Amino acid sequence: MDFEKISNLNDDELKTQATQAGEQLFRIRFQKTLGNTEGLKKLKTLKLDIARIKTVARQRTLAAEKAAAPVRVNEAPAKSTRTARKKAKKD
Fold it and tell me: Exposure string (b/e) for 41-74, b if CB count within 10 Å is 16 or more?
């Protein structure tokens, strides 16, 4: 499946596609252990599809988190306590 097709799916459809691809991957791996070599080419495409689905889902969660989080203004970093400890040791 293309990345564009996957990105156009809604969240429920993404979940169903992920479960279907996972089940197919399990079946093909099981057949592979039994010695059946049919569908081995499909393994790579299934793995890629699952990775694409997970990527789109992660992008959506990150976008939602970014939209929900307030924008932070750049703040100065906290002062280092290391120099204060060094001065205290010298005294």
Answer: eeeeebeebbebbeebbeeeeeeeeeeeeeeeee
For helices 11-33 and 40-68, what crossing angle results, to 10°? 150
Q: Determine which helix (DSSP H) or strand (DSSP E) holds 11, and give its type and residue range.
A: helix 11-33
Dig out the tokens for 52 from the structure: 């694409």
Q: How confident is the model at residue 60, as a pLDDT?
A: 94
CB within 8 Å of 78: residues ≥ 6 apart: none
- Taking domain 3-68, whether its CATH number is 1.10.630.10 is answered by no
Greatest CA separation for the chain? 78
What is the pLDDT, as a whole number, of residue 20?
A: 96
Q: pTM value?
A: 0.70
- pLDDT, one tens digit per residue, over 24-67 is 999 999 998 898 888 888 999 999 999 999 999 999 999 999 88
